[in-house]
Design brief:
The chain has 117 residues and is mostly helical. The protein has helices at residues 2-20, 22-48, 55-83, 89-116.
């Protein structure tokens, strides 16, 4: 899933940059990075710990990593808006939202594939 999201970010950034200009391209890329970096952090945190089937420990790690993911996302948005000039909000938030939706819709698509087989 993360590989597909990285590919989507790169493709949309290149298209936006080619069609609308450099600011749109790097704004789209930054929107993807603001989503992907915290998601990669969360995946690393959750998957790197061996909790040996301890449900409480697994849930604790999921909640803790989700809180850190949200905090990191806020920090990254703050850094983008304070350090990057000019910034185009539409591609920045557009790519971020598309990646968020893809993460929400992936389980639904997977379930549909399972029901067909």
């Amino acid at each position: 899933m993360l590989a597909a999201q990285i590919l989507l970010t790169v493709v949309v950034s290149l298209l936006a940059g080619g069609l609308k200009g450099m600011a749109w391209g790097y704004s789209a890329l930054l929107g993807g990075l603001v989503y992907l970096l915290p998601a990669l952090y969360q995946a690393k945190q959750v998957l790197s710990h061996n909790h040996s089937n301890n449900i409480r420990a697994i849930l604790r790690e999921l909640y803790k990593s989700e809180i850190w993911k949200m905090a990191l996302t806020m920090v990254l948005f703050g850094l983008v808006f304070t350090l990057v000039k000019p910034i185009e909000p539409f591609p920045l938030f557009g790519v971020f939202i598309v990646l968020q939706l893809s993460a929400w819709l992936a389980p639904i698509v997977q379930n549909q594939k399972l029901y067909r087989n």
